[in-house]
Design a protein that fits this description.
single chain; alpha+beta; 4-stranded antiparallel beta sheet; 11 helices; 12 strands; 50% helix
Length: 455
């Protein structure tokens, strides 16, 4: 291959890698959040799904226009039928695991001022009523597309699941606000994000257990938390003591997580920022301690507080997912906490193994602790500063909404962490194991762990 051809190939490869994969058809011309509305009700051997879609999403169907951009309502029937069929394909329903095939009964255009989708009865009456006059002047992107889809079901109390895949390029920017009206049960409201997968509208216990365990596992994965664990385990070799600390941290986290999800602690943005600042500040302190005199018992206090603060943030995520619990509230709560604990344990094992490999194969324990602590502490310092600015802004807004009472409630839920940290202080010294020799070990009158030889 000639030099010119090689250069051209290199440029093409660089362009392919540098060009963002979402630069095409990423919905950049749409609002930051696209909201669909819907109702689902099973009756008389059929399931009715009523859906309202913003007209912005119908641009691929090239609705006919007239004049300055008004919809030609006299000629929209054919593309609206195509849009209704596409809606049936992209909002999928299953009965006992079997896909349901929709039939489009109605498809029409509505004004932005139309409020018929406030209730199921009003929406159904609207879809079965008169259409807009064909002479109505309505811009192509300033209204709604409404459709009525029907699915044959075997029973009014059928076990139904739904998956939303409308405009997949929008991802979680798209959400469907769905009201499900089951037979002889109370109506339930759901907010279904794009790409959220299959959701059972009335989950069985094992469906709720799997969904919430998976959600807890995914939501708990965090780079900052992994950095925290790396800095925590770096100078220590006694795995059992580390495991006990991680389990205690997870238990305290589960306590505040549950309290937040159940509404005992109000979910606020400044509280999430406080959790992030506490985590970053603890990493900085651990990094400094690793260079000086590492003591695992002293770390119980900070780790317990970090766990409790982290529970507040995860509790807000559980509160968002709580709508999918149905009647399986206890199982959902326990499963979510199990998922979170599994992430903590897996991250701790991975951090411990990574540190041991680094020390054994690359740097050696003393130098490895120094380098790792310096790098992680430096990164955490910047995280702390960035979070601090955001925390200050959020705190200013919160000060106008009764900050004092919120701080009192949070302080009460942090008490178990303070008690756990105080109890750990009285653990025997052998609990620390034999830590890696610190920088202070080379000073006269110091032990290998950096403590005074006179102690």
């Amino acid at each position: 291959m000639s030099l010119t051809a090689q250069a051209s190939a290199a440029i093409a490869l660089f362009a392919a890698l540098a060009f963002p994969c979402n630069a095409v058809a990423n919905g950049a011309d749409l609002p930051a959040e696209v909201v669909l509305q819907g109702f689902a009700k099973a009756e008389d051997g059929r399931l009715r799904l009523l859906v309202r879609v913003p007209l912005d999403l119908l641009s691929p169907f090239r609705l006919p226009k007239r004049g300055p951009g008004y919809l030609d309502l006299a000629a929209v029937d054919a593309p609206l039928k195509q849009a209704a069929a596409a809606t049936g394909r992209q909002i999928e329903l299953r009965e006992d695991g079997v896909p349901l095939v929709p039939t489009a009964r109605e498809a029409r255009i509505s004004l932005l001022s139309d409020r018929s989708f406030a209730t199921y009865g009003a929406a159904l009456a609207h879809l079965e009523g008169a259409r807009l006059p064909i002479e109505t002047d309505l811009f192509w992107n300033q209204g709604f597309f409404d459709t009525l889809l029907e699915y044959p079901v075997r029973s009014p109390s059928a076990h139904l699941s739904i998956r939303v895949n409308v405009a997949p390029e929008l991802g979680r920017r798209l959400k469907l606000q769905l009201e499900f009206l089951p037979d002889r049960k109370a109506a339930r409201g759901y907010v279904l994000r794009g790409g959220s997968g299959w959701i059972a509208l009335d989950p069985r216990w094992y469906e709720a257990a799997w969904l919430f365990a998976r959600t807890g596992f995914v939501d708990a994965i965090s780079l900052e938390r992994f950095v925290f664990l790396l800095c925590l385990v770096a100078p220590f070799r006694h795995w059992r003591s580390l495991l006990a600390l991680v389990l205690a941290l997870s238990g305290l986290q589960a306590l505040t997580l549950t309290a937040t999800a159940q509404g005992a602690v109000a979910t606020t943005r400044w509280l999430a920022e406080l959790s992030g600042i506490g985590l970053a500040a603890t990493v900085v302190l651990f990094a400094i301690g690793n260079l000086g005199a590492a003591n695992l018992r002293r770390r119980w206090f900070l780790s317990a507080v970090v766990g409790s603060l982290g529970g507040f943030g995860l509790g807000a995520l559980l509160a968002d997912a709580w709508q999918f619990a149905g009647t399986q509230t206890v199982i959902s709560l326990v499963s979510f906490n199990i998922g979170v604990v599994l992430v903590e344990l897996a991250s701790a094992v991975l951090a411990y193994a990574a540190v041991r490999v680094l020390f054994a194969r690359v740097l050696g324990p003393p130098l490895g602790v120094v380098v790792l602590s310096a790098v992680l502490g430096h990164a955490a310092w910047h995280w702390m500063i960035d979070r601090g600015h955001q925390f200050g802004h959020e705190l200013e807004h919160a000060a106008h909404a009764g900050l004092g009472s919120a701080l009192t409630v949070i302080a009460l839920w942090l008490l178990p962490a303070l008690v756990a940290g105080a109890i750990a202080w009285f653990l025997p010294k052998r609990f620390d194991g034999a830590p890696v020799a610190s920088l202070l070990a080379g000073l006269p009158g110091r032990n290998a762990d950096g403590s005074s030889a006179r102690d």
